Model the fold of this input.
Amino acid sequence: MRGILRVLYLAVLWAAAASVAAAQQPLTATDVLAEAVRATLQEQVAAGRAVVDTPIRTVDAGGHNVGIGLVRRTGPAQGGSAAHDKVTEVYYVMEGSGTLVTGGSLVNPERRQSANTTVTGINGPGVSGTTIANGVSRRIAKGDVVVIPAGTPHWWSTVDTPEIYYIVVRVDPERVVALK
Done:
């Protein structure tokens, strides 16, 4: 009888381990092809706005979401400062240059409304401001990469070229931004 119970116990353990392994199958890779980036840039140019932040894809990366977007800004710098509560951003500058200010504190901070499409579809809850006080300024140009941790104020104080555009990778560990 003990032998049968032991075999049953081991079979249950094996089945549980197999089901856990099956549940942890690797996720499929997601491509964001150059054509999607080019098409997004064309849409942004056609929109004619000074600042356009367009999410291209937001995917489940296994325990967290990762978003890929394109941001286009025209010179001179326009747009306010921001700090995102939960989402880290990584910028890869594809064209142009400007001065990015990080750290310090937001001037005239206002909490974003939770139903705002920027909150639900782009970079999650956070605070917007007009500028930054006591931040660190650095010139960013084509080919540069900057990591902006969640909670860090950031703001483009200048755009030195007619336009700057950059890929933004958004790491969302609490899955506050909707999948796309």
